[in-house]
Amino acid sequence: MKPVDSLKGFGVGLRPCHYADFLSNQPKVDFVEIISENYMVTGGRSIETLQEIAKRNPVIPHGVSLSVGSSDQLDWDYLTRLKKLVDTLNPPWFSDHLCWSRHQGHYMHNLLPLPYTHEVAKFVAEKARIIQDFMERPLILENVSSYIEYTDSVMTEWEFLTEVVTQADCGLLLDINNIYVSAVNHTFDPMDYILGIPANRVRQHHIAGHKNKGTFLLDTHDHNVPDPVWDLYRQSIPIFGEVPLILERDDDIPTLDELLIELNIARQIFNATHTQHTHTSA
Amino acid sequence: MQPTPNTLTPPPELVDIQNWLSKAVTSGKFVKKEANLRLTHAKNRSSSDRLMTYIDDYWPRCLESLTDDFPRTARTLDDEWETVCEAYLAAYPSTQFTLYYLGKQFPQFIVEQQLSPWLRDLAQLEWALLHSEISAVLPTLAIDEHTILKLQPHCSLLQLQFQANDLVNETPSPEAPQAVMVYQWDGDGTFEPLDPLATRVFKLFEAGTSLSEAFDSLSEQELTDDELTTISTKIQSWMSMATQWSWLTHYPPKENLQ
Fold it and tell me: Domains of chain A (ranges plus CATH)?
């Protein structure tokens, strides 16, 4: 596997429909991200393909079933399989979501938000710390899109996120689209979110599209990135600086060439904004 | 590093909210009054509407996964498919971190529901084909007569009541029992019919046995005159098949056999 000490640049989520492109060409990406669980099975074509692709591209494992916010105890079978995958890929970090998806051993196969209380933050941070120690590699947690808020919550999502990552001493995978989706659904200013989190803990970005359902936004990853999300990304650049970014697409997936054109928009926005900001600061 | 003992105590309010929400999402049932107490309203959406976003996601996601894994069973059941899936998820909620394994108990569920033998065979064969594609193919090994052998993780030995080709081609036909080995070849799931004698031998390997024990056991069984005259050729042919298609490995296997 290609060893990775640190990561820069722009990449895409690796999906099976693009395997052939990655095997026959060297697409212009700086790294790729995989859904960890899809490669935590014991064999099959996907694993063999990943091994080939990982020889040429840095690969970041991004999970959906860690369920760090679950009141269940940690699933050591899951963690052992994840560690095996992560150790094989040797990435600078691995990621999953600040959410819960499992309860009493049953999986909801969705990313459910947590009540934002100090007690829950402390509990989740402890779990994250144990996971990070076991994996012997930095964990970065992603903010999820959400459609509900609990009456039990006593703080904002970004205050909760800050409390968890600070107590756990882990990094942040800041999904710009998720901030935008939740901001519309819960009526807050997305810039309050961006300004409210510890910038020095942001290790990676996600960017994606969503679906407008009329009365709310649904995080579907089945559209191009819309302008308001690009605008938010543009506004975040002076705050977070150079952060590696993954463009996610999970449904209605275009050709890799089309996806790379969209990825190039992120590059252009970053270059233009970063340069401008550097000149202004100087 | 050894895993840390499970000593974390979750906050009671977290357990309480997760008890309630997990039931609501997986069953699709909740009391509006309770949703109003536990969840806030948005400007233009009630707490119940907001909760429905998660409920509306759960069921189609599971149904789509089962339909992808059992396409022929789904087509055969037609209008009944969704009802059967709903009953299956109620009986066997997902306990796996990936949807790849959501259908793991589905063939067993079909048996429990006493659906038709055709459906029982079809579900069994479809799961074995899928299972073969996401299971390990361990290195092909040098086999001597005393090595304890076992079927590879990607192999399933099925005893069907119908011909496997008729099942995959969805051609309803009269019962015609057939044993098949389902296995992974070049990344895809496929199968090979086995004659009764070969089935007996591979059943022994399924449980874990050596080559010499398997054939000793075979010779203790009653063989027809025809079987006796061709046994030597057959043994060579089975072992050649098993080697060519990586059906056998050492016992106990070194890899996880999920």
Answer: 10-281 (3.20.20.150)
